[in-house]
Specification:
This protein is mainly beta. It has helices at 22-34, 41-59, and strands at 4-10, 13-19, 64-71, 76-82, 89-96, 101-106, 112-117, 122-128, 135-142, 147-152, 158-163, 168-174, 181-188, 193-198, 204-209, 214-220, 227-234, 239-244, 250-255, 260-266, 273-280, 286-289, 295-299, 303-308, 315-321, 327-332, 338-343, 348-354, 361-368, 373-380. The strands form eight sheets. A four-stranded antiparallel β-sheet has the order 5-4-3-30, with no helix packed on it. 51% of the residues are buried.
Length: 381
């Protein structure tokens, strides 16, 4: 990374700091912000936000700062700060959700968070403080019956919820100032949809249907966010997790009952999936992609790592690494440095650092959650 200079004016003094590495940069930013005397919270906040904006521009990549876990038996969301160097999580508290929050998602800019509540049949909405990571509740909005998963489009303008009992997908628009959702109706899916994903172009969406063992494909109206049915394609038994790679050329479905991962190519013009086979993996549940598109991480009996062929999209096993008991979801930060997996039986999050050359994971420990954590999400800045 080329040398950059951060100029900070604090009262009448000016500090000129040469920043050659990300860890040093972050340390200086945090220490400088914390050094403001009591009563200057807004000055500290402004400095931190400004420095984080500069940092994103200097590195070209958003950096992870906070993480959130949906605790389905505690009916709350655990909040964490992320160490910029090690990726280790530190608890910063909890905030209430609806009844049985199953999944949580954060928009790409780290402004808003949303939790789907399986039993109260709604979505809890939050605003994220970009300095502290604290969530502020901004209301609930109704979903279909038994909402199971939620996805946002890359621009953060539309949201989609897979409802497993009403067999449909709820559609919402996102207010860009407040983060509040407005219902845009619902569209049919297969039977028992338990996963929903939007591709990186924001043009296509896909729902994994647990009972009908298939994937419903949709096109997205770029102006309204409305989904239009685009066909179905077979998966294997009991699909849960679904994801596309960062280029939007390949799609993958974790089939919990089938004990494998279905692999597809994505037609870049139409959004239609074409099967390219499957690869075995017992208890495949949820998945996440590395930002460079070279590795797929899957929460199964442990955490499985797969290399992605950059031409064909076919997965090749790169081994596994231990997790806690009952891995239930997995998330990768936008900079491709860290991976986090919730463990719903051991009530914790497994933390990992990513080898930048190979994509392999190295454990950095665990952190306690609430009871029965399912979804996990990261706020990047």
């Amino acid at each position: 990374m080329p040398e950059a200079v951060l100029v900070v004016n604090r009262r009448s003094a000016t500090m000129r700091i040469a920043l050659k590495s990300l860890p040093i940069c972050l340390l200086l930013i945090v220490n400088c912000a914390r050094s403001f005397p009591s009563g200057h919270d807004e000055s500290s906040r402004s400095l931190t936000v400004m420095a984080l904006t500069w940092l994103t521009q200097a590195t070209g990549t958003r950096q992870p700062r906070f993480a959130y876990a949906a605790n389905s038996a505690s009916n709350n969301i655990s909040m964490y700060s992320i160490d910029a160097t090690t990726g280790v999580l530190t608890s910063i508290g909890t905030i209430g959700a609806g009844t049985v929050p199953r999944h949580v998602v954060v928009d790409a800019a780290g402004r808003f968070a949303y939790a789907v509540n399986q039993t109260s049949n709604n979505v809890s909405m939050y605003r994220i403080d970009s300095v502290t990571g604290f969530l502020t509740f901004t209301g609930n909005i109704a979903s279909g019956t038994t909402p199971y998963w939620i996805a946002l489009n890359p621009a953060g303008t539309f949201a989609y919820v897979a409802n497993q009992t009403t067999n449909n997908v709820s559609m919402y628009t996102v207010d860009q100032s407040t983060g509040v959702l407005t219902s845009n109706g619902a569209v049919g899916a297969g039977t028992t949809p338990r996963g929903i994903a939007v591709d990186s172009s924001g043009k296509f969406a896909f729902a994994a249907n647990n009972t009908t063992a298939d994937v419903t494909m949709y096109t997205i109206n770029s102006s309204t966010g409305i989904l239009s049915f685009n066909g179905t394609i077979a998966a294997a038994a009991a699909p849960h997790g679904i994801a596309t790679d960062p280029t939007g050329r390949f799609g993958y479905v974790a089939n919990f009952g089938g004990g494998n991962i279905s692999m597809y190519t994505v037609n870049q013009s139409t959004g239609v999936l074409t099967s390219i086979g499957s690869i075995a993996l017992a208890n495949a549940f949820r998945m996440a992609m590395s930002p460079n598109g070279r590795t797929c991480y899957v929460a199964a009996a442990n955490i499985a790592m797969f290399g992605i062929d950059q031409t064909t999209g076919v997965l090749t096993s790169n081994g596994t690494i231990a997790a806690g008991t009952g891995p239930s979801d997995i998330a990768v930060d936008q900079a491709g440095k860290f991976v986090y997996a919730t463990n719903q039986t051991s009530n914790n999050i497994s933390m990992y650092a990513i080898n930048q050359s190979t994509g392999a994971l190295a454990s950095t420990g665990t952190v306690v959650t609430g009871n029965t954590p399912i979804g996990v999400a990261i706020a990047n800045y």
